[in-house]
Design brief:
By secondary structure, the chain is α/β, with parallel strands linked by helices. It has helices spanning 17-36, 52-60, 65-82, 96-111, 195-204, 209-218, 248-267, 272-275, 291-304, 336-340, 345-355, 367-396, 405-423, 427-448, 457-476, 482-491, 509-522, 534-549; strands spanning 2-6, 41-47, 89-92, 115-125, 130-131, 137-140, 149-150, 167-171, 180-189, 206-207, 226-227, 229-230, 245-246, 281-287, 312-316, 319-321, 324-325, 363-365. The structure holds one RNA strand.
RNA sequence: AGCGGGGUAGCGCAGCCAGGUCUAGCGCGCCGGGCUCAUAACCCGGAUGUCGGUGGUUCAAAUCCACCCCCCGCUACCA
């Protein structure tokens, strides 16, 4: 049984096109592939609702954090749905089930002796009545003297320090310079003691190549204990501690467990089988920004709590937009809903699938390439192949034929490769193979030219064989283009979308014949994909550039 | 500064870990021809590269080693 997760979206902003690339899309493709292959698989996700950024935003907008979370949770959920991301559950961490799960998880690691308390000095802003997290203190770097730096890290010289070392500290929210020092109890997680088991797991785990090196290198110098508490009034309360909540990075990944539990309870299944007894196969999809959390902290937490460890962690890089880094402050980005108001979500899915490999490298989103990938590859090769075959079949009233043996064996090889590539998370290469299959069909047509005389045996055999290719394509494109796959099966008059578990039937003549006859009787060729117009691209691009300049 | 990733035709990439099958492939674009069933789509053919630089190992290097240059990213309380 597979549990596929995608990193939890942080609930204080809308998602942009890049979010799909690194995380939600690959996980979706993988989950859809597994299900289509006949495996039991669940795609689990939800909003990450805690942490200081949400609290700060609430303060700035004079709202409650609950309101911010509610607002963005609904938006993000909708955005992902519109991206044709199909979760088996999309929940959120601001949720009694999650509070309970996090606290129970904590109890387990506490009982196992992996926590301790220690006093920590922090800056307090009397004006905001708030203990300030490091990132909410601004001041002068104690080393290089650069002004307006964070409380923990200088962007100019790259050195780290504590907020108490910072010169002329001021509150990052209200600017107050009259800060007090408070000594407070914090809860620490003995991560340092977990160095060896974490390392051992990491070395053997199935993790994206670069990410593993990255994490192993990072722990080479050992691990420090981890402060898992914060003195703010937004988050999961720590049992037995007054005025302390869990640091968001402690509670967020536990969301994977909470959400599995919520889903499983609705299905009458036991979540413990997966997360405690280790009978499932857990795959996390994440962006490269949270490698440490998922490859080090999270396994450490799981080991300390005696929970099951993930089996695979798949990491992908970020997206740039027309060659430039996306940035909120520079207003250079495209939100998912903005893209969808211009173009079909499947075009974005196709774009990222064909341009993204499983690696830490970033990828660019460019409209020129989008046009190319959609118009000249997806449509010209696959869409056009399907359309011309169906048109010829309809016109020639082709109802049967014989499969061309050597063409079939070649197609079978391509299909096997595609399945293998899906399985190993190489979706870009899987898409390439799918293109190859359609290309091979086109080649066959070019050589045999069945349109010259549709009543010949060759014409019948070629079209019969190509029709089998279309059935295969219908199954193969489904994980990437689920909506088009559905539409294609409707065109073919199939009662339901075919599954990859039935892929062998595709080359069974009697099976093909039934579907072919059905199609010739009742179906008609239909344009599956519409081309992207250059004018629409221009319009959206103009919009983005105008916003960036404003 | 340290660490990670990367530098291969106009653009995007594969190959490198297990050196020869690479007189370096693929997609898009480009040029020429064909076809007309098809969404001006499709088929066939072609051109374009000192594989970041220098040196080394080897019978043989895009692939291994050393040094250097350039780009991107990260560096535990920002998710």
């Amino acid at each position: 049984m597979f549990i596929v997760t995608a990193a939890l979206p942080y609930c204080n902003a809308k998602l942009h096109v890049g979010h799909l690339r690194s995380t939600y899309l690959p996980a979706d493709i993988y989950a859809r592939f597994l299900k289509s292959k006949g495996y039991t698989a669940f795609y689990v996700c939800g909003s990450d609702c805690h942490g200081t950024p949400i609290l700060v935003r609430a303060i700035q907008e004079q709202k409650k954090p609950e309101e911010i979370v509610e607002y963005y949770h609904n938006i993000i959920k909708q955005q992902l749905e519109d991206s044709l991301i199909h979760f088996d559950i999309y929940s959120k961490t601001f949720n009694p089930n999650h509070y309970k799960m996090t606290q129970e998880f904590y109890e387990r690691i506490r009982k196992n002796g992996y926590t301790y308390k220690e006093k920590v000095q922090s800056l307090y802003c009397p004006n905001c009545k708030m203990v300030l997290p490091d990132r909410l203190v601004r001041g002068t770097c104690p080393y290089c003297g650069a002004e307006n730096q964070y409380g923990d890290y200088c962007e100019v010289c790259g050195r780290t320090y504590t907020p108490l070392q910072l010169r002329n500290p001021r509150c990052g929210i209200c600017g107050n310079t009259d800060l007090e020092i408070k000594e407070l109890n914090h809860v620490f997680f003995r991560l340092s003691e977990l160095l060896n088991p974490v390392k051992k797991w990491l070395e053997s785990a199935k993790v994206t190549e670069g990410a593993k090196k990255y994490a192993l290198n990072w722990i080479k110098e050992g691990l420090r204990d981890w402060d898992i508490s914060r003195s703010i009034n937004w988050g999961v309360p720590i049992p037995g501690e007054k005025n302390l909540v869990f640091y968001v990075w402690f509670d967020a990944p536990i969301g994977y467990i909470t959400f599995t539990k919520e889903l499983f309870e609705s299905l009458g299944k036991d979540w413990r089988k997966i997360w405690i007894e280790g009978e499932g196969y857990i795959v996390h999809f994440i962006g490269k920004d949270i490698i440490y959390h998922h490859l080090i902290f999270w396994p450490g937490m799981l080991i300390a709590a005696e929970f099951a460890l993930p089996n695979e962690i798949r990491v992908r890089g970020f997206a740039t937009l027309e060659g430039k880094k996306m940035s909120k402050s520079r207003r250079w980005y495209i939100l998912l809903d903005e893209f969808f108001s211009f173009f079909d979500p499947e075009y974005l899915r196709w774009y990222w699938t064909t341009t993204t490999s499983e690696s830490l490298s970033d990828g660019d989103f460019s409209f020129r390439t989008l046009e190319e990938k959609v118009n000249n590859v997806l449509i010209a090769t696959i869409g056009n192949f399907i359309h011309r075959i169906l048109s010829l079949i309809k016109r020639g009233n082709i109802r049967n034929g014989t499969l061309i043996a050597n063409a079939i064996s070649k197609a079978q090889a391509i299909i096997n490769d595609t399945l293998q590539l899906y399985h190993t998370n190489q979706f870009d290469k899987a898409a390439e193979k799918i293109i190859t299959l359609a290309g091979f069909g086109n080649e066959l047509l070019g050589k045999t030219e069945p349109w010259r005389n549709l009543s010949t045996k060759t014409a019948h055999d070629v079209l019969f064989t190509c029709f089998a290719f279309i059935l295969a394509l219908n199954m193969l494109i489904d994980p990437i283009l689920p909506r088009s796959a559905r539409r294609l099966s409707e065109i073919l008059q199939l009662e339901q979308k075919p599954h990859l578990s039935d892929i062998d039937k595709v080359f069974d003549s009697s099976y093909i014949k039934v579907i072919l006859e059905q199609f010739v009787e009742q179906g008609k060729p239909f344009i599956l994909f519409r081309k992207i117009s250059r004018q629409r691209i221009q319009e959206l691009l103009t919009l983005l550039k105008r916003r960036a300049k404003a």
